[in-house]
Amino acid sequence: MSNFAFLHTEWPELFTEARRAERYVYADTRMTCLYARRCLEHALQWLYRADSTLRLPRRATLDTMITEPTMQNLAGPPITTKMHLIRRLGNKGVHDARVVPEREAVAAVRELFHVTYWIARRYTRDPAAMPPSALAFHASLIPRPTDIRAQTRAELKALNDRLTAQDEVLAKAETAKVDLDAEIAKLRKEVAAAKATNERRPDTHDYDEKQTRDLYIDLLLAEAGWRLDQRRDREFPLTGLPGGSGNGRADYVLWGNDDKPLAVIEAKRTRRDPISGQQQARHYADALEAKYGQRPVIFYTNGYEIWLWDDTAYPPRQVQGFYTKDELQLLVQRRSTRRRLANQPIDSGIVERPYQHRAIRRIVETFEVDRQRKALVVMATGAGKTRTVIALVELLMRANWAKRVLFLADRRALVKQATNAFKAHLSDVTTVNLVEDKVAEGRVYVSTYPTMLGLINQTDGDLRRFGPGYFDLVVIDEAHRSVYQKYRTIFSYFDSLLVGLTATPKDEVDRNTYGLFDLEDGVPTDAYDLEEAVGEGYLVPPNVVAVDLRIQRKGLRYDDLSPAEKDRWDELEWGDEDGEIPDGVDPEAVNKWFFNADTVDRVLEYLMTRGHKAGSLRSGVAAGHCSDEVVRATVGASGGAGDVGIAVGAVVTGRGVT
């Protein structure tokens, strides 16, 4: 007997993993959470193979498979929230030093039951194996073994690592199968037919959404350090409310060390829009303020979407979780300690150029006057983007707008450069390079995107290290389309002010990037392009040297490639509407579609042998300054008629390297 018997016919592997999770509930709660997460991961891997409407993310972790937009559209908030709940409980089981309570182990199995039922309900190909709508989860079916020893945390982590390694070996073996494409095509055809048939049947299954909502909210609050172990934390009685008797109960109240309310949370039914609880939560905040003399921050949620409303500063906004006590305390304190940004001077010891001051003023005007939380600055390479943002950080910290800042770059070398720049210009502020030291504490954190993506889910016990409210400002260096597509999870996760920096001309910035910053296409917060910089004497125009190379001159033909190159050609996502792979690429399209390492090597060789050299440049840069003229060279594809451009120019500075 098992709650998962309906999986046995069509998904025997999932049944095995789910049955293991069920078996350990009362013997080893950690093991239950591990196997529940593992079963979910295998289920999603099957879904991405079987359903052609799903787009596998490039970095296919359990988190990214759940948050992928095509999965969100397919499953919807109720099911994806259950998936996130299983994932979080699984991580807790492996990494948390404390014992996982039995109720959470039962919840992991219960939520897994609903998720796998949802899969079976839509994808079962054998009508006889279709689970009935009346099928329900029964805790009484969970076995109560007495001969199983609970695994230690170290043993469980070792088991998790071993199982993960086995999965990777099996995945590689599966990928190497000669007939894999044919198998997947056959599976997708069968699944599409079953899906079309099954969707015509109404789904009346009770997915038990209230329990999911309540547990998910409690889990998110625990990750922010809220234990909810006091009677006043839940269902707190209030008086003086409008309408009726004037009495009511707030679902949650989060208290400060001074016994004053820091936040109030209104939880609506899962089927309702969370915004329906907005005004009710506001009335609760009014009543708490009247009684305690402090206005709490407002949260309202349906368990799937969470909204934060500090109605003294900004309009409501959707967030990915709850603030910690310290973060809420700081938010409340800033109502009286935060200074007017417009009145604060800009540190001319960091930036002295008029366009840099203008960019900073436009950003702070956006934050303070326009009450917007995002800004995008377009500034030509060499014009001092990093210094500009360092001066912005100094101003925000001095005015009590920012305590902790995250600076994101796409390469390790740029992270190191930015770290050194922050240390040089903000010597009294601790700056941490997260690529090199992932455990250090500071006020400015500099990281690559993949490093931060890996740290977002890091927990110390229940407490998440980098919660949604941890940073007050996130800076995106070189904000462009690829960053938006690959790492948008980071930008939506942190509830912070957001500043994007890019050297891409404003008319060439992708519309999705403008959308990320809630801006009109082609209208950044501030722009300072190469033409302006050259006209004002801060940069010099490039001299273009055409290097005649075969690929740029003749293009590429499939028949001319090696077998390995042909395999890579076939794997590329060409983006044609008809899905056909071309037989060749014309010369004018080469620079648009291809990055060719050999071509770049040849251009670099041409530059290094024939370009101008500055012998003292290396020692000057190492010392943090150099002579008034600094030779800058850039190599890149022109995007024109197949020529590769080499731009060589002198950046005139009075202060050294910018």
Structure description:
The protein is an alpha/beta fold and 658 residues long. The chain is 44% helix and 14% strand. The protein is built from 22 helices and 20 strands. The strands form five sheets. Strands 9-10-8-13-14-7-15 form a seven-stranded parallel beta sheet. The protein has a six-stranded mixed beta sheet with strand order 1-2-3-4-5-6. Strands 16-20-19 form a three-stranded antiparallel beta sheet, covered by helices on one side. Strand 5 (306-309) and strand 6 (317-319) form a beta hairpin. Helix 11 (354-368) crosses helix 12. The longest helix is centred in the first third of the chain and has 27 residues, at 69-95. The protein is globular and about 80 Å long. Residues 616-658 have low confidence and may be disordered.
